[in-house]
Specification:
mainly alpha, extended, 59 residues
C-alpha cells in the first residue's frame, strides 16, 4: 500500500541530528521515522496539555 508523505527540507544543528540518529538506531527506526515519531509525540502532548484536538480542514 502506497502512502503519500509530504517531503520538505529540514535543517538542524549537528548535535541534535547526531542525538536523533543515536535514538533512531536504538529504536530500530530510520532517522526520518524517528523524527516523524518525535513530531507526532509532540503534537499529542500539545493537544493533551491544552485539552484540544487540532483540526485540519481538507482543501
Amino acid at each position: 500500500m502506497t502512502t503519500y508523505k509530504r517531503q520538505f527540507t529540514l535543517r538542524m544543528q549537528e548535535e541534535i541530528y547526531e542525538k536523533i540518529k543515536y535514538i533512531a538506531s536504538k529504536e530500530r527506526r530510520s532517522i526520518a521515522m524517528q523524527i516523524e515519531y518525535a513530531i507526532e509525540y509532540f503534537i499529542a502532548s500539545y493537544e493533551k496539555e491544552r485539552g484540544i484536538k487540532i483540526r485540519i480542514e481538507d482543501d
